[in-house]
Every structure is written in C-alpha cells, then in structure tokens.
Here is the input.
Amino acid sequence: MTEPAVEPLALPAIHASHGGTWLRDANGETRGCSKGEAVMAAADTPLLLLNAPLVANRLGYPDLSGLDLLELFAFVRPARFCVPTPKGLAEALDLTVPGSDDAVPLLLQRAAARLLEICASGDWAEREGAWSSLQSLTRLRWPWAQVLGPHIKKPERAEKWLFSRLPEWEEAPERAQPQQVALDELAIEGKLERLTGEGAEKREGQRLFARGAGGVFAPRAQDRRPHVLLAQAGTGIGKTLGYLAPASLWAERSGGTVWVSTYTKNLQRQLRKESSRAWPERRADGSRPVVVRKGRENYLCLLNLEDALQGGFAGRPAILAQLVARWAAYSQDGDMIGGDLPGWLGTLFRKRGIAALTDQRGECVYAGCPHYRKCFIERSARASAQADLVIANHALVMVNAARGRDHAQRPTRIVFDEGHHVFDAADSTFSAALTGQESIELRRWIVGPERGNRGRRRGLAARLADVASYDDAGGEAVEAAVAAAQDLPSEGWLGRLAEGAPLGPVEALLAQVRATTYARDESGQEAGYGIETETASLPGELVEAAGTAAQALAAIRTPLMKLAGRLEAIIADAPDWLDGQGRARIEGARHSLAWRIDLLAAWEALLSRLGGPADPDFVDWLAVDRNDAREFDVGLHRHWVDPMKPFARTVLEPAHGVMLTSATLTDRGEDGPDWPHAVARSGAPHLEIAPRTSQSDSPFDYANRAEVLIVTDIRRGDIAGLAGAYARLIEASDGGVLGLFTAIRRMRAVHGRIADRLARAGLPLYAQHVDPIDTGTLTDIFRDDPRASLLGTDALRDGVDVPGRSLRCVVMASVPWPRPTILHRARRAAAADEPGGAKGHDDRIIRARLAQAFGRLIRTREDAGHFVVLSSAFPSRFLSAFPDGTPVLRLTLAEALQRVAQGVHAVPGGETAKESKESA
Ligand code: SF4
Here is the structure.
C-alpha cells in the first residue's frame, strides 16, 4: 500500500528506548541526546511522545509529561485497536513503520499530523461529540486541546450529549424453559462439517470430541444429577468448534442457552470470533444470539462517569473521564477491562481512574439510576437471558450460581473450557477474607463516603431514602445498620494499626492479627512480600478481640436482615407509588443486601472458630499483605481444603449438563494420564456422580517441531549467571522469547541487567511489573513485534496465545515449585493419603505448570521452537509433562545457544540426534 503523503507536524518530538534517547526539533533535525538533556527539553516545552509513563520510566524522571500520541489517538479514534508502540501506531494510521529508533521522532510528528488531518476531514467516523468534548478538555487544560482546536469545526447543530445518544435496551418476554432434546451423532457431525467449512480437512479427533460433547446436552434422568463430561483435548484438535457444534445445535432445537466459561480473556476473544461461524451477529429481530458476559466490575457505570464528568474527578483523572466518555459513545458493549477500551488508556493516567468508573463496590442504584435503561451492565444481563450462547468466565459462572439475581438466568448447560483452572477459580470464589480492605468497603457501602471525598457515592440511607420515609421499621433498620457500621475500619486504618492505636473492635482485631503475624514470622522481614501464620495456638488477646469483633459484625448483620425482610414485605404488598422501576430498584437492593448478609455471616463463622478446634474442611490463616515492603492489607483468611465441594453443590447440582475440557485436564504422570485424580478434582464425586471421560491427542508433530532443552550449568541463586543466560538466549533466537519466572524480584533483577544491552542490539525487552503497561497490552506488543521478548510470571504462563514466529522460545528461570504457603501445606497434607502422597501433590502442580508453559510454544501446526529450563537438577519425573515424542536434551548453556540459534527444523522421520525422554 502506498502511504498517503503526510507532512510532519512542526512540534518537537522525543523517543526513549533502552537503547538511547532521540530528540527531533520542530525544524526536522533528529539527534541522539542524554537522558538529562531530554528531561530538560521536556520541561522547556511540551514534546510529542508515545506512552508518557513508559518514556518517563526509561528516562528515570517520573514527572514527565507532554503531548502523548496515545491520548490523541484515544480522542480521535475511540474504541479502536492500537498497539502502543511506534510500529503499532504507524500501522494503525497507515504510516511507514520506522526502521530504527532514531526514525521514531519523525513518525511521531507524522502520526500527530495524520490524526489532526482525520479530525479535519469530512468523513471522520467519530466526529459526533468531539467538539463538545474538546470544549471540556480545553477547560481542563488538556495539552492537546490547543493543538486540536483549529482542526475541529464547531457543528452546525448542538451535539447531543453522551447520555442521550446511547441506545436503550428493551424488555423482552421471559424465555420459555428449553425443550428436552437429544442430539444424534449424525446431526452433530453434520453441524461440525458446516462449521468447519466446505472442503476443510476432516479431523477424526475433533469429530469424536464433538460427538462426546453432545452427550452433555441430553435430558437429565434424575434431579440433581447432571451429565458431567471430562474431555481432555490436546492442543490443535479444534475443540472450540468441537463443542460449539453440539452447543449450537442444542440451542437451536431446544430454545435454551449454553454457557461457555473460560479462564482467560484471550479465549473469550477467540470464542467470540469462532462463534460467528455458528451464529449471525444479529437475529432477524435485532437481538444478539451470542453475548459476552463478564462480572459487573468490568463495565463502565454511566452514573459514575456522569459524576466524574461533572466535577467528581479533577486534574488528570478528569481528562481520563472525558476520553472514556468519547469511548463510551462508540464502544460495542461498555467493557472496560479487556473489551474495546484500550488496555493502555488507564495506565497513561497512573491512578485507579478506570476502576473508579466501574461499579466495583456494588453501589448500583438500579432503576433509581437515571441511566438505568442505557446501562451497559443491565443491557448485557438482559441480552444474555435471550442468547443462545453466553461467553463468560469461571468466576462469573460461579458467582452467578451462588448469588445470581435471577434464578431463571442461572446457567444449566455449561462448558468450562480451560477446565484445569476451575479448581483455582472455585478456590477464590468460595473463600472468605475478613481484612481491612474488605471491611472498609463494607463500611462505605453502608455508611457512604467519608468526609472530604468527592463524588456521588452514597450510603444505604441515601439509596433507600424513599423506603425509609414510607416504612418506619425499614427506616429504623437502616439507621441501626449505619450506626453499627461505625465499628468497621475507616480511612487511615493501616496507619493506626502501625501506630498501635486502632479505632473500634474490628481495627482492634486487625491490630492483634498484625502483631501476631509479625511475631511469628520467620521468613525475614526484609523479604518485603506478604507474610502469614496459622490460626493454631493464638494468643488470648487475639481470641478475645475476635469475640468482640464478631459481636460487632452481628450487630451490623441483624438490622440488615431486618431491612431485607422489610423490603420483601414492600414487594409482596406493593404500595401505590411502587412502579415497575421502583420495584426493580428494591429487588436490586434486596439482592445486594443478601450478598452483604452472607458476607458478614461468613466473617462471623471465621471468627467463631478462632481459639477452638480446627474444622477439617477449611484452612484458616492470618496474613499481612505487602508489596515492596509496603503493607496494603491485614486480615484473616478462610479457604476450603477442597473448593470443589461448594462448587459441586452450587454449580454442578442445579445444572443439567456440565463439561470440563482442556489440553491439560489430567496430570500426565510417568504412567500416563491420571484420570482418577482428574475425576476427584471435578467435584462430581461429591454428588456421587461418575463423570464420563474422553481423550483426544494433539495432532501436532512435537517430535519435529519442538525441543526441550534443560540447561544444567546455571547455578541456582546466581542472578548474574541467570541474567547472562537470558540475554544470550534472546540474542541467539533473535528475540521472540517468552521468559517465565516464579518470583517477581528475580525477574526484575534479570530485566534490569539486560534490557539496555538487548535494546542496543535492536531486541526490545518488555516485562510485567517493570513496564507501566497492563499485561494484555504487553502481550499485544509482544505478538506484534517478532524481535521483541517478554518476561513475566503466572499470568503469562497460563494465558498467552501467540501463534507464529513472534513466540519461538520459552525460557523458564527454574523448576516451578509451588510456594510453601499455609494453604499449600494444608492441601499437601490432605493429599498424604492419596496415591502418590504429599510429594505426588507437588509433582502434579509442577507438571501442570510445565505443561501450561510448554503449551504457549506450539499453538498451530506451523509453529516450532525451543522450551528451555534453566535448572541444574531437573528431576526426570517431570518430563512426562511434555507431549509424547518431544525430544529432551540436557546440555550446557553454550550447547543450548547453538541449538536455539539454529532453530527447530522439521526433519522428516525425526532423524536427529536427540536424547529421548527415557534416557534423560
Ligand atoms: S444502573 Fe447501576 S451500574 Fe448502571 S449506570 Fe446506573 S448506577 Fe451504574
């Protein structure tokens, strides 16, 4: 494509990478300069730059500001995708990608000119609302406002403001119960063929998988006994279409809804794409057959946005609110986390602005909200009730099953893809934590904001003012709850704990928790990370404080229960003034009350156990959470030893058909797949159900497309050696390395030592917890640049999907041993009587992590690459984690570098000299 001629904008521009810093002046001269010079130049005059926090980080000058091209992009092209790198920006604007760092400042000048040109053009798709927004941004002194001003014409007619432009959702009649239908195998295969497309190669594994999945949709024979299928499906068998075939057939014939639940956003995105083969974007009546549903904390709350636009936010956050408002008008579904709002937008503004615009605290006033009929959250909830397919995540499916607002909307046919994560999701969903952060949230929900806080956030009394004026008993209950909630922690609680001056019974308890945790800690406080201790043999003062705190919590719960009863009575015997909207609002309040009542009851149960005998079903502990030695939370925690127990009761039991599928559902021990353990972990045995199991192996040629290299000459704890190994491996593979660590500290140390050196060789290195960029965006950057490498921890090991050349080498810094937490120790002890014992428990965790990490490497038939583990003593019993036939070599770093530099080439028949797993 020929690039449209674009004259660079005559403003100075700066670019800083790990390889150096370049300045280009308004007259078009580019030169390299020192960091100090760059900082001086930026202080002098606003410079064009790309991703200010990142440039600030590179220059070591946190206060840097300027004319950030990303902010301009967010204004001109809201809800459009852009990888926030010079290459990404160039591609998003059809400009030539700069070939070297020193060409970037020119690109920035041209990109700015191009964006201004779009604003001035007659066919700017996102013009509506821009002029009004710019007026507000000018008042807020947004640096771009002056530059943009002359390019955006005042519209002839006044622009409608956002809240009147958004469409309203429509009420739809309740859906009938799904018809009971059984799917025959021929029909499933026919559907699969249609989905994979004419002429597509027939894959036997996929057909078997699809037929097996069909059984989940059969009518249930007994109440509370769903069909449960555990289907292990190797990477590349095409499992998504494999289950979408019977799912779409069932939805079509029964009129019901299938829920597909994932753990990562990546898979959600992929599912959205693949489902378009089975369903149109819209039905004839305009409704959507496929809906992505997330937790409400993911969506923009319009009331919060309105509040932010009208003075609730000041300074930079107010600018963010304006840019979010631009986006909201063009967003597909209002999803702020992983939807079409660029992940980088929030990090440009550094504070928790994005979170403050979602409904994180459950303060929704439902029908009492002026934007209720346009609310993105309500729209998505309604759309999912009418959908054939709902794409959700594990946490939401579980929360919905446990405390969903509407029984009719609870999922009954569920496919848990990434099924190996169901245990972890259940673990966090069904746990309880009585901490300072959690309890202050509850206080705010009941009492409202503390003095001095801006914004509309209102307490229970304000939210239910009309009920209180109508119903005396309800009003008294609200007053009593507000009075009792004064005993919960308030602003400044962490400081008071540290000074030994807690306020109220819950802070007093937390002070005891903190003191006991520190007193018993043996990890060495300089470690700076979280510390914890068991609840065994607690000091008398703590047990006493727990008793007093439990009473205080009960004193809050009692009036809340009374209030819930009053709300119920009002709904049952509705007064004249209670119209449909009022009713919906009271229903909403009842729902959020029930959730808080359950929360308080769980906290009280947790406290009542302290000092007494332990409950064998639970693990309790005290913890002080810290980050870089800074405390951020203190509290008590309770987890189920086996969280699949509550999962079985709340999710499985009411369902009709449930499937868990993944490439790594079973552990692959030395004797092959361990199905008994996978069955035990599915939760089905708690309902005395024996699930069906199936297995389809990956069609990939691992023997010729991948090699596992175990590097044996890097000593454990030798950071310099580790960093050197990473740098040389990245150089040998010319980038394209995903580096995985188990400890953030070690990862930072490695990054700090090698990033500059690699940048000078044109090999950009990014890292989670180092670069001020969210994980999703980091992955986008990595995917987009085949010479980039990325370092990270667990989230990258589990969720990165980067097919093709961009990822050709995975390097693990060590064997991924589980962290010896109290929870881990308890589960390990519980596994002592199982086959393999406690050690087997650890081995399973490690093999699962290795298998997950290896799974990042080969995503398609064409992918090839190396999986490197830097470990001088890698036990052979972990090798079965890798797919059968994958060659494994133990070698020195020098030898590994040679192999990585050569790449993996398909050798017909696999006739290369490789050590087999057996001989390793
Ligand atoms: S209905 Fe609730 S979530 Fe939606 S905009 Fe209003 S307050 Fe926010």
User: Anything to note?
Assistant: The CA atoms of residues 317 and 353 lie 6 Å apart. Residues 540-572 form the longest helix (33 residues).
